[in-house]
Amino acid sequence: MDLDTVKDRAGPREFSPADDLPEEYRKAATRMIEFHANSEIMGAYLERPFIRQAPSIDRKLACSAKVQDEIGHGQLLYRAAESLGVKTREEMLDDLANGDGKFLNCFHYEMTDWVETPMIAFFVDGAAMRRQATLRRTSWEPYAHAMDKVCFEEGFHVKHGEDILRELMSGSKKEQELTQAAFEEWWPRIIQFFGPTDDKSTHHDFAASVGLKQQSNDQLRNAFLDQYIPKARSYGLEIPDEPRIRELDDGTYEVEEGDLDWDEFFTIAKNDYEPGVGQINGRKAAQEAVQWVRDTIESDATAAGGHAPQAAD
Amino acid sequence: MIWEVFRQEKTGQYHTHCGNVHAPDREMAKQFAAIQHGRRKPTNSLWVVPRDEVGEIDAEDVAFGGTTDKAYRWATTYKTTGEDAREVVESEDEQATAERQRGDD
Ligand SMILES: [Fe+2]
Ligand SMILES: [Fe+2]
């Protein structure tokens, strides 16, 4: 299939591994899905310490379930990416470990306090879900199918995150202040989740023209602000003065781009941001620490026979 | 030799199991599958898989879950304020359906 045919046919779930697709399509789709897969994994590592730090047994169970889900999302997505025939799962995981794999800006920051958890679980998962819901109509069928399962599970993440926020914002004055402070710290990063404005986005046009991407950065950022500004306010959070956000007459929002730190954003995009490098190396160390488990499984796959494995549910 | 057949009705949908055919090889299996399973129902694509290649694990071998209370894992457990995002509502609905089908409630 040539590129013009791809552009002509580019509808939801239109292309599958049975199709002979041009390299440009396969490379663009690989870049996009690999980024998404890496982000699931790195997000899980960011939240993992909060299984231990959770303030109650219910929160602990939910945090552990969420981290487990996110690792699962990564696995689903590596399969969807691998099926394009450009990179193997092994290569993508190696690239993530050696610092070449790219992932979401928000997961390059450290998260140390419990009050920060809703910034990820509610706002970042909420933002991700806005985007993922549109990707159920992406043109690469295996990606769309992965999104079906991811979206099925994500509702729990967002609502659990919102529940933590509700609890904190109806807690003591100190809890409310700390939560507000965490919100102010994370808010600009959350807005940058959607990347720079459309005219500065490098990959959008092609990805949109072949049906991989369904909505532009600006459309998604708008849809997010539209939904989540009222939510934040309803729990008593105050939207920070910066970045300045103007509500336009047509109900959309305009973010003052100059108020956001794009140097930091693009340093992150190159994997050069110091805390992010720490996260990458942290995951790499964790991977190496359990290498023996993978070795055991791979070298002795049959020895496990005879006793019933416990299915995860 | 038995080949399990999976039918996809439209582009982009899932291939779901719809039956099996007897055939000496993959080529014949595809032909028979097309004749037996691709004719009356809408079909966009068929997969044929040798039955021997299908691994199975069932409810007798393993507990698939649903026996332990894992309410913390369901969106329906958490009460929120105001209107939830469309896709969150959709996810919660899908979960509620799955919960009912599993007979948790
Ligand atoms: Fe996820
Ligand atoms: Fe999530």
From TrEMBL, chain A:
GO terms for molecular function: phenylacetyl-CoA 1,2-epoxidase activity. It holds the Pfam family PaaA_PaaC. One of its GO terms (cellular component) is cytosol. It comes from the Archaea. InterPro entries: Aromatic_CoA_ox/epox, Ferritin-like, Ferritin-like_SF, PaaA, PaaA_PaaC. GO terms for biological process: phenylacetate catabolic process. Residues 1-12 have a biased composition (Basic and acidic residues). Residues 1-20 are annotated as: Disordered. This is Ring-1,2-phenylacetyl-CoA epoxidase subunit PaaA. It comes from Natronorubrum texcoconense. The lineage of its organism: Archaea, Methanobacteriati, Methanobacteriota, Stenosarchaea group, Halobacteria.
Automatic annotation (TrEMBL), chain B:
InterPro entries: PaaB, PaaB_sf. Residues 83-105 are annotated as: Disordered. It comes from the Archaea. Pfam families: PaaB. This is Ring-1,2-phenylacetyl-CoA epoxidase subunit PaaB. It comes from Natronorubrum texcoconense.
